[in-house]
Design brief:
heterodimer; A: 230 residues; mainly alpha; 11 helices; globular; B: 314 residues; alpha/beta; six-stranded mixed beta sheet; five-stranded antiparallel beta sheet; 8 helices
């Protein structure tokens, strides 16, 4: 077998690792954010919604460019991190995670927000009349009834992180084992005109993405069909 | 120092130096309502003794549900005061506003607001205060004839069963004040009668102070000790249900116009009300403003009612 056709699984594993870590952290920060957007009576919350959704319309290179500036040890935030906390975010895995969190945030927040908004207002009120706090209400009443939205949000943010390219290129580069994820590996192989190997990476990503979307639509179909509300 | 009356003696039995007998519930609030007819002030004050049931009656849009929501702390007011027992729930002058979860209320919503993810038993367990004995749940399940359904989710229950669960859940919370928003409106007459029985049982067993929003007279006469008629955000009359509803010497019905026929220089309207069709005269000016299919209020004067031979639904 030709050596230049041997697929290096490391970029794929790195992509999966980045996507899993991003998805888990997004579950933790996305749920409270969606809850706040759904129930807060702040008048300017629409502005927060717009900021969260910005990565959906922004070219990834724009986001990547500003993150690169922010993370650079030569600039304020980056210098603070490297001087006082000894953290480097440019060309490192933690930097990729932070960038992915920002980049995929709307894909977690928006479905969960839509889920909360779709619940009858009096379920939350009923829970309060039963003496329960906001936190208990969230975990016992609200979240169990937006399960489909939670799964959609988690799967979409996972898939979106796998598909990330522009942001990773800008702030991660292509360091094997550190920042060289699958989408970057494809690009590298194309640059060195190794199309057959690029094709192998691409097929793995294509199949993975398709399976993920099948899962999302399957789950939504299931919930819409069998969802039994009073 | 003078000895204070012990907390469980009622003021009537042992009047202390300043202890005027004060009612169990005091309510006085103002709120601007945005109704279909424009802006209107909801301006209501009333008192209620412990263990009594108050019915709030009135046309839709009069502010009945808003009143309950204000009591529960779910709707904010412009100004007001609410006290239950020794607890002040709301005092806008003193900037006090207890959140809903700190008010000992049982609220039965018009659409029940059962949680689809919990079984009947779990709904009751959810409502049970931390220090309450779990036997209460079995007791309520048996009292409301829900034992066979206890492991079912609400989606599998009929309207009447859901209603019983909502009521049992509100009681499991051990409220001092039970608030019922049109609790029986979604049910047919047979179910309604049965549920009135359950409500009666609950009141007997737990001696709850209850406020009931209703536009169903039989319900009020059967369940309430006292009633308030609310119109345009204000109390129109107040007192014992049998007395206030007996004041009116007319009978007003809501009817649908089936046809409008000229009859000399007058007109005859054929209208239908419930299962009855009858004719009423109308002047030509009146007839000009009416059209077939329209809903009108018909006032009957000097009625001599008689009971039919079969059992009345009352």
């Amino acid at each position: 077998m030709n050596d230049h056709l041997t697929i290096d699984w490391q970029p794929l594993w790195l992509s999966l690792k980045l996507a899993s870590v991003t998805m888990l952290i997004l579950l933790v920060i996305g749920i409270p954010l969606a809850w706040w957007l759904a129930y807060s009576r702040q008048r300017w919350k629409f502005a927060v919604e717009a900021v969260i959704s910005l990565p959906m319309v922004l070219p990834p290179s724009v986001l990547g460019f500003y993150l690169l500036l922010a993370f650079s040890p030569g600039n304020g935030f980056g210098r603070f991190l490297s001087t006082y906390l000894d953290i480097r975010l440019v060309f490192t895995f933690p930097g990729l995670v932070l960038a992915s969190l920002i980049y995929s945030l709307p894909f977690m927040v928006n479905p969960v927000l839509a889920g909360f908004r779709g619940l009858p207002a009096d379920w939350k009120e009923a829970s309060h009349t039963l003496g329960k706090s906001e936190l208990v209400t969230l975990f016992r009443v609200l979240l169990p009834n937006v399960r489909a939205s939670l799964i959609t949000g988690a799967v979409l943010s996972f898939a979106h992180t796998i598909g990330e390219f522009g942001v990773v290129m800008m702030i991660g580069g292509s360091i094997p084992g550190q920042t060289k994820v699958a989408s970057v590996a494809i690009y590298d192989e194309v640059l060195s005109t190794n199309y057959p190997l690029a094709n192998r990476y691409a097929i793995v990503l294509l199949v993975l993405s398709f399976v993920i979307l099948l899962l999302v639509y399957g789950i939504n179909h299931y919930y819409n069909k069998y969802k039994t509300l009073p | 120092m003078e000895p204070r009356p012990s907390p469980d003696t009622t003021p009537q039995e042992a009047p202390g130096p300043q202890a005027e007998p004060r009612p169990f519930l005091e309510f006085a609030t103002k709120k601007l309502l945005h109704t279909a007819q424009g802006k209107e002030w909801l301006d209501v004050r009333f008192q209620l003794e412990k263990g009594q049931t108050l019915a709030i009656y009135g046309p839709s849009g009069a502010g009945k549900t808003t009143l309950l929501r204000i009591l529960a702390g779910l709707t904010e007011v412009s100004s007001g005061f609410i006290r239950l027992g020794d607890e002040t729930w709301l005092d806008t002058a003193g900037r006090k506003h207890s959140p809903t979860r700190h008010r000992a209320i049982g609220f039965v919503f018009q659409d029940f607001a059962l949680f689809p993810n919990l079984t009947v038993r779990q709904q009751l367990e959810y409502a049970l205060p931390p220090l309450e004995t779990p036997q209460l749940i079995d007791e309520l399940l048996s009292l409301m004839a829900l034992e066979a359904l206890q492991h079912h989710r609400p989606a599998l229950l009929s309207g009447g069963q859901q209603q019983r669960v909502a009521l049992a859940r509100a009681i499991a919370r051990r409220p001092s004040l039970l608030l019922l928003d049109e609790p029986l409106s979604a049910l047919d007459d047979e179910m309604r009668n049965k549920l009135q029985d359950y409500l009666g049982k609950i009141q007997q067993r737990y001696h709850l102070t209850t406020i009931l929003v209703s536009h169903h007279l039989p319900e009020i006469l059967r369940l309430a000790d006292t009633a308030i008629v609310l119109k345009h955000g204000r109390i129109e009359s107040q007192g014992q249900p049998a007395t206030i509803f007996a004041q009116s010497s007319q009978l007003t019905l809501t009817a649908t116009i089936l046809s409008i026929q000229p009859d000399g220089d007058q007109y005859v309207l054929t209208v239908r009300c419930a299962d009855n069709t009858f004719n009423i005269p109308a002047t030509s000016q009146q007839a000009d403003t009416l059209s077939i299919g329209q809903t009108v209020s018909v006032t009957l004067k000097a009625v001599t009612p008689t009971l039919p031979s079969h059992r009345s639904s009352l």
